[in-house]
Structure formats: C-alpha cells, structure tokens
Design a protein that fits this description.
By secondary structure, the chain is α/β, with parallel strands linked by helices. The protein has helices at residues 40-50, 65-76, 123-129, 141-153, 170-173, 183-190, 195-202, 243-256, 261-276, 288-293, and strands at residues 4-7, 11-17, 32-38, 55-62, 84-87, 92-98, 104-109, 132-135, 157-160, 178-179, 208-212, 218-222, 228-230. Strand 11 (208-212) and strand 12 form a beta hairpin. The chain binds alpha-D-ribofuranose. Alpha-D-ribofuranose (RIB) is lined by residues 11, 13, 38-40, 43, 94, 106, 108, 138, 241-242, 244-245, 281.
C-alpha cells in the first residue's frame, strides 16, 4: 500500500450531553446519552478513509460487544483492520461530557489498548509500505516509540498527535516529522502558553509543527521559514469531540496527495468544521464529497 497506517487506540465513547459539566462533588442532570465509536487512533483512521485515503489500522479492540462495533465502524468506513487485534478483556472506553457550547471533557479507560505494548507480527512490514504513519498517545508509549522508529527506518513520514498531553522523551520526538498538538498540548510540551512561541520551541525537537487553534484555525511552523496561520471556517459548534482527529486524518490525506501544507491545512480545517456541527466522534466525520463541497 502507499497510503496511511494508523497505530492507535479504539474506544467506545459513552457520551453525556449536559448544559454544563459538573464540578467536583456536584451532580447535574444531563439531557441525552449516546454511545459512539471513537478513540483517537480509530477517529483518525475513519477521518482519513472518508477523506479518500487508503488506510490500515494497527491496534486492539476487546473481546466484547464494543470491540465488534468498533471494528465494524472501521470496516464500514473502508479501513483495513487485518492487523487490528482482538485482545482478551474489555475494549477501551471514553467517558465524555459534552456541554452546551460543544466543549468536552473526557476520561479514557485504556482497556484493550493497554495490551498494545510493541509492534506485532506483520506491523513493521505494513508500516514500511505506507506513505504516512499516524500516531497519538492513547497506546502505551513503548508501542508508539516502536512504531515511530519502524517508520523512521523505512523513511515513512510520521505524524504525531501528542494527546493525551504528556511530556515526551527526545528519542520519540527525534523520529517525528510533523507534530500536531492543540494549544493546550503545545503548552504542556513546552511550558509556553503562546502558540507562536511554543511552535518555535518545538522546532528545536521536530522539523515541522502544526498547532490547531480551534475556531481560530491552525498555525504551521517549519525551520527556516515564517510561520503561517490558516483560518478555520466560522461555524456554530454542537460537539467538538473528534475535531482534532478529523483535522489530522484529513491533513494526512492531503499531504499524501502532494498538496502544499497551507492547502492541506485549509482542507483539514473544512473537515473539522463539518465535524463540530454534528454529534459524536466517528459519527461526525465528513466524507470527501462533503469536504469538497464546503
Ligand atoms: O479525540 C477524541 C477521542 O478522545 C474520543 O473519541 C475519545 O475516545 C478519546 O479517545
């Protein structure tokens, strides 16, 4: 294959829609409950496949009903799941609260994702045939590092979404071609709140950075060039869950097609803008025809 491999998580999202998220010690009454297939890895795979990419997913689902649904969602979106293992025990779950502004807070329980500690049989061979490897931080760091090193060995472009945010070892960052944090994640990695200054600091460790800025668009920085900001379409958000994953999956497809970064970011922003106007993670990711028409 010459497309995209995602090494990442699958979660069933258990979503409560509520006027505002409860504070510690508080109980609030929500409006609605939904179960939606998600997980940062699976979301990026679905987004990339719907945007027109040739996509395969490496990871694990649990041997439960959620696992079957998670696998089915990927297959239905056109993602190759031959190397998506079924592990003993429960699938990953994400406990999501979405408020009336469309903002969310999430607790992830790793479940089967926790079993992916290293590359399995066939994984490196698949990665070696890809154009791009997408990584996030919902699998054990040992697996993320193994995948990134394998991609690096075979000159496959690596794109890392450093989420959930955590400090990262330089041996991992040294294998990454493009880092795509949001503002919060960039601040955790650098200790710098200002995205421009954070991007500059991150360029000491990776050659290219795209910081997603929510409604303000995204910021691209690369060594030796002026940073570029690409605005996002103005839309009214009902649920921002999975918007960052939609951005990354779509961006990867555009880059695989050889589009320049600025154009790829615009395309990815259009896809994310469509995503936030719908409910749920995988359920809200747009198809290529919708992105092109927006
Ligand atoms: O990025 C959004 C995702 O984060 C959700 O789908 C949830 O599963 C958590 O992993």
């Amino acid at each position: 294959m010459t497309g995209i491999v995602v090494l990442g998580s699958t979660n069933m999202d258990l979503v409560a829609y509520v006027a505002r998220a409860p504070k510690s010690g508080e109980t609030v009454t929500g409006r609605e409950f939904r179960m939606v297939p998600g997980g940062k890895g699976a979301n990026q795979a679905v987004a990339a496949a719907r945007a027109g990419g040739e996509v395969a997913m490496i990871g694990a689902v649990g041997a439960d009903e959620f696992g079957e649904q998670l696998r089915h969602t990927l297959i239905a979106s056109g993602v190759d799941t031959d190397l998506l293992r079924t592990a003993e025990g429960l699938s990953g779950t994400a406990h999501v609260v979405v408020d009336d502004e469309g903002g969310n807070s999430i607790v992830v329980i790793a479940g089967a994702n926790h079993t992916v500690t290293c590359l399995g049989p066939g994984d490196e061979t698949l990665i070696a045939t890809a154009g791009t490897l997408l990584l996030q931080l919902e699998l054990p760091l040992s697996a993320v590092l193994s995948g990134a090193e394998a991609a690096h060995r075979h000159s496959v472009r690596t794109i890392l979404t450093p989420s959930p945010a955590q400090p990262l070892p330089s041996e991992l960052l040294g294998t990454i071609d493009l880092l795509v944090p949001n503002e919060h994640e960039a601040a955790v990695l650098t200790g710098i709140a200002d995205p421009h200054a954070a991007a500059e600091a991150l360029l000491r460790q990776v050659p290219q950075v795209v910081i997603t800025l929510g409604a303000a668009g995204s910021l691209y920085a690369t060594r030796g060039a002026e940073p570029v900001t690409v605005p996002a379409p103005r839309v009214s958000a009902v649920d921002t869950t999975g918007a960052g994953d939609t951005f990354v999956g779509t961006l990867a497809v555009a880059l695989c097609e050889g589009r320049p970064m600025r154009e790829a970011m615009g395309w990815a922003s259009s896809a994310a803008a469509l995503c936030v106007q719908r409910h749920g993670a995988s359920t809200s990711m747009p198809y290529r025809t919708e992105i092109e028409a927006s």
